Amino acid sequence: MAAAADLAEGLLASKAGRALAFAASFSICLLAAGMLAITLLGHVHRPTIVLDQPETAENTPKPPTSIDYYISDDGRKPMTGYAAPADIRAKFKIAIVVSGLGLSSTASKAALDSLPAAVTLAFEAYAGDVGQWVAEARQHVHEILLKIPMEPFDFPDSDPGPHTLRAG
């Protein structure tokens, strides 16, 4: 123990040792001051997300009269006829899809009652009453998707069920 103390004392007794200790302590103090300045004076720039949904009668799409097949008066296909209106002046466009609906009636009802019309709803093909849920979603003017399971690579070892979209 005394040998270590003698070594440290001898290192600090030399001019180079003192300069090294001073430079190390100065660097640590400079880093601490910089971190303190950033903490106190720095402003965190976080992106903000704003979803503007004008609630005017002219921007709200009317629900279609037929659920089975819909072509608008100007000849648009169902995909574009059912599409929610979008602001073409917007710089960024984000699509929000809530999936897995139809399997739980509680979750599906909550989604229909609380989500705005701009949110797309995706229903499971295995839902027993998917037609009823789609009809209700259309009354709330939601865009609808149907989730269809696809054939896995290891088919038939892994069978996703009877509603699977298969390669054959």
Written overview of the protein:
This protein has 168 residues and is mostly helical. The chain has 2 domains: 2-41; 50-168, TIM Barrel. It has helices at residues 2-13, 15-41, 78-81, 105-114, 130-139; strands at 97-101, 120-124, 144-147. The mean pLDDT is 76.
Keywords:
single chain, 168 residues, mainly alpha, TIM Barrel, 2 domains, three-stranded parallel sheet, 5 helices, 3 strands, 38% helix, 8% strand, elongated
CATH superfamily of the largest domain: Glycoside hydrolase/deacetylase
**CATH topology type of the largest domain:** TIM Barrel
Helix content: 25-40%
Q: Report strand %.
A: 5-15%
Short description:
The protein is 38% helix and 8% strand.
Question: What secondary-structure arrangement, pairings included, does this model have?
Answer:
Blueprint: H1 2-13, H2 15-41, H3 78-81, E1 97-101, H4 105-114, E2 120-124, H5 130-139, E3 144-147
Parallel strand pairs: 1-2, 2-3
